[in-house]
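Late entry, evening session. Most of the bench is empty. Finally got around to the prediction I had been postponing all week. Sequence below, unchanged from the version circulated by S.P.
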Amino acid sequence: MAANEALNRLSTTDASNTPVGTDVIGSSLDDELRSIKANIARSARWEQTATQSAAVTLAVTALHKLFPVEGSAGGTTTVTLPQVASAGAGFSVAFKKIDNTNNVIIDGNGSEQIDGAANRTLKTQYEGLVLVCNGTSWDVAADGERLTVPRFTIEGSLTASGVATFKNNVLVEGTLSAAGAAVFNALVTMKAGLDVSATAAVGTLLVGGTSVSATKNKYDATSAPTAGDDTNDGYSVGSVWVDVTADRFYVCVDASAGAAVWTSRLELSAENVYTAQQRMTLQTDTSSSNAVTFDFAGGDCFIDLTENITSITISNLPENAWATLIIQQGSGGNAVTGWPAAVKWPAATAPTISTTDNAYDVISFYKKGSDILASVSQDHR
């Protein structure tokens, strides 16, 4: 108490505070005492600085200061901490990201570390970080979207071999995977997706104590789903499958084991009014060795005849749906035969394709059960 009162009597601006009878000590003691009082005053409160949006290396004057920081217009903003040797044990400093654009990196000086890492990255608006020097490195005293809300960030994907339980807020940059159930008692944000399974089936996802469905999806497939991508693999009705190679989108409508059904078409169960013209993609097919396959999974089909066709395969024509095939005659009057038995023509007679060069024949198909009803409009030129 006496020491505090003595310090309070010191002036941080007076020319001399040297006690009577100690003039021989001179101004060096005077300066030391003023420095001690100034440090005590600063340690009693936090001070907020001006917003920092450019790279900077902090000095020891950053003691007990809160730095509002934001990403620079050209990219990340890097704030380098003072050297540990200069800061000393107990030195504390805080940062708060105030924008929602580019990241802010809080970097150790040289090889100095922050909780064992070279740096910490603030990625979301209002995310904060409080650091305290321990004399040899920096300790994280608090972090989160707000300094009052504990939260931690997982830079990559998180995989749990059993049940995954979260009691604190967490941001997972990659995919969250759990072999068992996932129990969330806090806010969990996943940027890349959720894959939760209990043995071979989809597990239980608890949010605030309430069970919700955890649907398995696949967003990086390089081929279309098959009947084998089923409940045994964790898929269920409503699962989404994205084929990034073919740029196709599928939804599971039946996940039965060994007989899964995925559709890339949406069926409308009520009258709809369209405010713009609707159209199908027109795919160009070619024949080889007198054989051709018309696959309607991607839309209507077109072929420019370059040879006689004697073998035709029709695939992915949806039930109760129309599709169109356009045939353009090349040169030489190429013939088209070999229609599948499922194709039913008027009077049970397949048409003779127009033989005039560049003439178009337009064939309409309608799938009804196992039959494909067909009609043709010919010799367009």
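Two things to note before I forget:
The two ends are 106 Å apart (CA to CA).
The chain has a mean pLDDT of 78.
Will write this up properly tomorrow.
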